[in-house]
Design goal:
CATH architecture of the largest domain: 2-Layer Sandwich
Strand content: 25-35%
Number of domains: 3
CATH class of the largest domain: Alpha Beta
CATH topology of the largest domain: Uridine Diphospho-n-acetylenolpyruvylglucosamine Reductase, domain 3
Radius of gyration: 19 Å
Distance between the termini: 61 Å
Helix content: 25-40%
Strand order of the largest sheet: 4-5-10-6-7
Amino acid sequence: MYDIKALYEAESVAHAIQLLMEHPEAQIIAGGSDVLVQIREGKRAGKELVSIYGLDEIRGVSLEEDGTIRIGSLTSFSHITRNPIIQAHINVLGQAVDQVGGPQIRNIGTIGGNTCNGVTSADSASTLFAWDAIVELTGPEGVRRIPIQDFYIKAGKVDLRPGELQTAILIPKAAYEGYEGHYIKYAMRNAMDIATTGCSVNVKLSADKSTMEDVRIAYGVAGPVPMRARTAEARAKGKPTTQAEIKAFAHTVLEDINPRDSWRAAKDFRQHIVVVLAERALTESIRLAGGVIHE
């Protein structure tokens, strides 16, 4: 049995906002793969819930006129992985969310729920950070859009104001055009496990494929929230695609990250893993971009 005080079914985004304003203590439920588990555990027992799962207006992937990729917050992981727009432009995101749980979770879990949880281990989060994603929030005062790094406030807390819900995640054309990326999830086991560390890298190469014009790298579980390694990014920009430069880039991430000790892994082990993953992810990104790595 689930200890739920009341369940309200939203019929539109506007109706969802109205319900949230009328019931200020209510919490949003989408697919329920996290919320229902937390209710069973007693963490959200006795709560009022506003279900937005029936709102097709915030489900699906589309390409806007300016080339922005719009991912509705109710889009399931399975649909993201199979979507032709995702596959053509940011296939790494589809690969990342395909590592969330098992098939049942990926069919019901949504990218909005994954990011609104605010947890650093979310498989979609580091990849969205690396793609300079923008979060669209809709509430009683209208629509606001903020960079995803500003959406995450601290562990388990995101910038959702009273009456607001996340309606989309946007990837601007400038953030993906000419880039290739790769995501690596390190976990204690391959199946249905939370990431010990996740690393997502994008690279844009020069016309002759010999220089890294731009590199973006983001991590999950390298700090209390997902994070970019800005010092490493600056270190790699404009450098040749050589093994030495890739290794230098990978070691520089240690200047930015701040992993913690936990029962899953010790801090020094995570520090070792983030360097290894950075090197592997950048190497694969360069290969996907058509580059050749020289000694």
